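User: Could you walk me through two proteins back to back? I'd like the raw sequence and the structure tokens for each, with a short line separating them so I can tell where one ends and the next begins.

Assistant: Of course. Protein one, sequence then structure:
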Amino acid sequence: MLKKTISLIALLLVITCAALPAGSRIFRNPKERPRRPLAQAMQIADEAQNLNEVSPKNDKTFYHSDAESLDRWLDSVRRQHNLPALGAIVFRADSVLARGIAGVRRANAPDPAELSDRFQLGSNTKAITATVVATLVEEGKLKWTTTLAEVFPDLRDSMDVAFRGVTMDLLLSHHAGISPFKDTDDRDFKSIPRLTGTPTQRRASFTAWVLRGKPAGPIGAKGMYSNGGYTIAAAVVERLTGESWESLVRKRVFGPLEISGTFAWSDSADPNQPWGHYEIRGGLKPIDPRNPDERLPPIIWPAGAVELSLNDYARFLQINLRGLQGRDTPLLKSATIKHLHTSPVSAADNYGLGWGVQDFDGAPASVHTGSAGAFYAVTIIQPTRDLGVAVFTNAGGERGTAAATDAVKALIRRFAKSG
């Protein structure tokens, strides 16, 4: 059995522009399994300038009125970075400006990638988990200030006293002092006890175990990016509703938006959808989604397991764009959406709730990237420009990161000028 290391990278765009994510590297031994860090901390203060300073390498002119020209442009970016597939969608709050995809579902196979194909979102899933929490807040079943001790009164006595006052705001914005759980080779991940039962039962056991320990960092002060925090957030909504996180995502996000999403690493993996690819010496290695050795543990799914097509992901993003523009939506009220895109701590930083918040080219932006090591997804939405872009590729590592970053910045700049 291959050693399992896992990645759900969730960085602001500034990080993808600055350097290769830790763990995304080419190995000396081509048979060695690539390390896949579950998430990196967002080093916003030191690297915020890089998003605006680094120019795309492939900013060739194309006409957004011509869908075929966008396909050709994406194909040129894809070929430059030697990727299997690359897709993008550009949208306003109420319309799609352009969409395209180029390449194949799997390297060394002929099936072309299609716009309806589903790609892994990686840590862009966090915005969906935060949205599920937000629906419960609007229903009055939860408050942003609700504490873990209030949700889990049975755990209060065993819970470290510092965790008792952690609120949903702090949990979802990475200010809860929860360890990162970014790589199965790291000490925090190796120390997780054996968990059994359904995914919901495992997340509950994980939550109880984490909260018995000491915080890994300061609570409510400096943010510390944590996948584990989103596992606990899922355990919160599962405790309050009696339903699984997976069921809640289907009912509260997929259903109302009429989108068709799935969950990576499930027992119903579809081999006819795009395969992910690891970067190895000499090329890319296709990863069979049916391989049980490639599955991430269900405790971490709320941090990065959702799979969507570009069209469906754009529908979710458009809801956020409308809310940021002051418009209530069928899913959430504008005030709630604005809360998700705002740092909740007194010394505001770049951590929203499932989102990174920053400026890009002089305009406010909500951004996020995600990778499960074998896919890469990046999105940026700018409400004052009424503009958003999402880019997917079915390859991780340096080349997937570079291509998606080049593409998303070029598209934002191109369509901002045309608007």
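----
Protein two, same layout:
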Amino acid sequence: MAMPWTEKPVAAVCPDSLLWSLLAGVPIGLLFLIVAQLESKWFFFLFLGGLTLAASLAPVDRKAYYLTLLVLSLPIGVDLNLHFQPSTFRRSTQGFSIQLSQIPLATLYVIWGFRCITQRLPFRVSTTGLFPLLVVFTSGTISVLLAKDPLFGAFDLFSLSVAILLFIYAASAVRELWEVHLVLFTLMTSMAIQGIIAIGQHLSGSTLGLEFFGASERFNTTPGLAALTRVGGTLGHPNTLALFFDLLLPLGFSLLFCPMRKRLKLLLILVVGCGMIGLAVTLSRGGILSVGLALTIILFARWRERTGLLRASLAVVAAGMLPLLVLFGPSNSIQERFFEHDYGSAYGRIPHMQVAFNIIRHKPFFGVGLNNYTEVGRQYDHTPEQIVPLWNSPVHNLFLFVAGEIGLIGLGAFLLFLLAIVRTLLPAIRSPDPAVASIGLGLLLGLLAFLSHSQVDYCNWSLFGTLWFLLGLAVSVGRLASLPSVTYTKRLS
């Protein structure tokens, strides 16, 4: 199968669309004048809401339009915190977080329901992973009820609810092959944008004026005259941007082995290159190592199919010389980050884990409550370093963090949920179709890279929209790959 990215024909510009553009301009202009008097965050949300509402009246495929908006908005850190509560402790969120991506997500649910009603279609919801996910949500709810500060717990429970809705939509409503192609194209576009922003931030030594969209001030470490500058794109923290690249770089790299037009492959090479450079300038050691291992596995798997085991092994060894030259060659910021300027951050993760184990021993069933870890964790910090007040941060290990907040029951259900996603991807990885197999392998190794990296870095798991969307996409890809060959061939035509 060639990769046309989208097999749905694009409608030609017609007089109706031109008329709609003229008519829509008047109310949009009036809306702009009205909301321009508000605070910038409210201005952006209301004006964007008006634009998306006006776009709903345009003669275009509304589902494709809002699906594109949803994927593009996932890594953009524009949000409102309703009922905002200040806190001296590190929190996942300090209010009911209304994120930019929730606007197209809500619209997509409306479109989905409307089409099911008007066209009398069954409202089919994928059940893959739903039961353990329900247990995760139930454990989170109980943990909030038992938490020291239930209000902050409710904030994070709301975010978890939105994440589950995002997963359900991607797993259930992305059912056609052209929709998968559209999503892949948009994901690669999003990765290119974040890569370009990261490179620009690194070269300019600034946020590029993107603070409103989620960019944070540079993370600098300055020993003497040496300065290491880390960038975070529009996701804020460098490690968060690295986690974003963890998910998408293996997917993009795996797609390079699909049969596609030369121009498209060249463009994809440039996109993956931007992502790799973007990951490098985050200076995230966990991200660089995790992605490097994932890309090596993809390279070995694909070359073994084409050249055999021995030649593939030699090729991987030869390809591995490049990162070794970066690490052990002339002095550079990546080398300094790995070997010189650690400032105890790697060692500091060990006492953080000791605190997490203390919490789990004392509250094994439902933890300390969502969004309560840093505040309550100080009571269980018996380390000489007093690491929790020093860092004011949760443990840098996703599974320990989940167990500490919602207990071992919630962690067990979360692991079963992830296992269900991996299992549903197996038919795609084993597919005789090279494109489907590449998509499945890329999604799987992106997820594994993310999970391995998140064992040594903090991950705000309930708010990481790209993770939840890709988990749902994995279910959709696995379902498409499981279709009988006759039906599947029909969908490819």
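The beta strands are 79-82, 96-99, 219-221, 228-230.

Let me know if you want the two compared in more detail.
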